[in-house]
Design goal:
It is built from eight helices and seven strands. With 263 residues, it is of the alpha/beta class. The protein has a single domain, classed as Rossmann fold, CATH 3.40.50.720. The longest helix has 26 residues.
């Protein structure tokens, strides 16, 4: 069972101040990894890092290349390497396509696709042979079930998460063909109990798509064969892909959605 441990590994998780990212960072740390938390929410990020003991917080705007370079350099300087990168930071826009502004669409794509691209790019540079870490590793991109199927009023989000899904596969092919020793996979959560999940429910109410939040809550609950999930459920999936137990897995999709995608 040692392959399920992360002792001696260093992980960087974007968007880890709260929600899925915080749960993922805590789970990786519990499994033995040294964790670097990247986020824009400095106070929350520092508090999350402090709660994990020997963890590091770095200010990280995932849309800025210089921030990625600095975050990875800080991880290597503090903990001596980089073995795991989790591209978790993301935003959600709820709007009918006919009413979605170009500004909102571009913002969603910039964070969810460009941010993931930059994370993948700089993780590869660091992890590949000759990089500043140079010992291979595992990159896990957080996509969504919305990256697998269309959803009402989530067109921009679906497009962005679909982009992250195929970016993952392209990166897996490159890293595999070039013998970099880097695995790249995506995780596709269903609706979980986070601030972003709650926002979707209230946004559906604002758009007049449901009569009240309770109705929206019941509908989303019923859409998942196993009910709504917890952040920990997603974190457990990320942990598996990050570990050596998944060392023969790359370019694949781990769907952690309580059966939403098949319902």
């Amino acid at each position: 069972m040692n392959e399920f441990r992360l002792d001696g590994k260093v992980a960087l998780v974007s968007g880890a101040a709260r929600g899925l990212g915080a749960a993922t960072a805590a789970t990786l740390a519990a499994g033995g990894a040294k964790v670097v938390i990247g986020d824009l929410l400095d106070d929350a990020g520092k508090a999350t890092a402090a709660s994990l003991g020997d963890a590091l917080y770095v200010h990280l705007d995932v849309t800025k290349e210089a921030d990625w370079e600095a975050a990875i350099a800080a991880a290597v300087k503090r903990f001596g390497g980089l073995d795991i990168e989790v591209n978790n930071a993301g935003v959600e826009t709820t709007s009918l396509l006919e009413n979605c502004t170009l500004e909102d669409f571009n913002f969603t794509m910039n964070v969810n696709v460009t941010g993931t691209f930059l994370g993948v790019k700089h993780a590869i540079r660091a992890m590949k042979p000759g990089g500043i870490a140079g010992r291979g590793g595992s990159i896990v991109n957080i996509s969504s079930v919305a990256g697998l199927k269309g959803s009402l009023a989530l067109g921009a989000y679906c497009a962005s998460k679909g982009g992250a899904r195929l970016l993952t596969k392209a990166a897996a092919v490159e890293c595999g063909r070039l013998n970099y020793g880097i695995r790249v996979n995506s995780v596709h959560p269903g609706m979980v109990n986070t601030e972003m999940g709650a926002k979707v429910l209230t946004d559906f109410l604002k758009l007049g798509l449901v009569p009240d939040v309770a109705t929206a809550e019941a509908a989303f609950e019923a859409a998942h064969l196993l009910g709504r999930g917890r952040p920990q459920d997603i974190a457990n999936g990320v942990f598996y892909l990050a570990s050596d137990a998944a060392k023969w897995i790359t370019g694949t999709e781990l769907v952690v959605d309580g059966g939403f995608a098949v319902a």
